[in-house]
Amino acid sequence: MRKTIPSLTVLLLLICSVLLFSISIAGAKGNEFEVAIEVTAHWNEDLLALDIETNLPDETELMLSISRANYNDISPDNFMAQTKVTVVDGKASFEGFSHKGNKMAGGYDLCISMSLPSLQSDAVRAVIGEKGENMTGDYAKEDPDFESKMVEAIFTVMAANDEITVTPAEDYQYTVFREDDE
After folding, report:
1. Torsion angle, CA of 163/78/113/111, rounded to 10 degrees?
2. What confidence tier does 86 reach under pLDDT thresholds 50, 70, 90?
3. Rounded distance, CA 144 to CA 120, Å?
4. Quick one: 5 and 48 in the same domain?
5. Is residue 182 part of a domain?
6. Which domain holds residue 55?
7. Inside any domain, residue 111
């Protein structure tokens, strides 16, 4: 009977250790979240205003870049504008893009991006992870150069008269980037 009790104790300790290890792994994975970003647009006078809803944490700094250009050609028709916004209560907004001072018309690419996690606040990194490792989904992109994840969401914006539509896109539709020299 004496040998059975120590063996039973060792077995129970082993089972408890395995359970605690499993719980700690599940807890770490429990911090992961799929990045969600939704965009709507409206006219603010003749300016294209953007409203963003996201599950990124408050204080997350996002860059909004809107473009329609062919960077292989130098052309006065090339257009690109940027602004930085900060997430507050799951929302961010910008009240006014124009196309070189004119009301926007036609198709544009909108890229919503988040810089390196190391450039975000401590509060943001507490949620997304020191290197963005807690972020998952289509908008969470690996950056091998910095060994971290960033956010990049591309949308197509169509502005026609009084109507504006914003739809998710897999790639740029109205912007051609400079081709690399081969």
Report:
1. 30
2. very high
3. 18
4. no
5. no
6. 33-176
7. yes
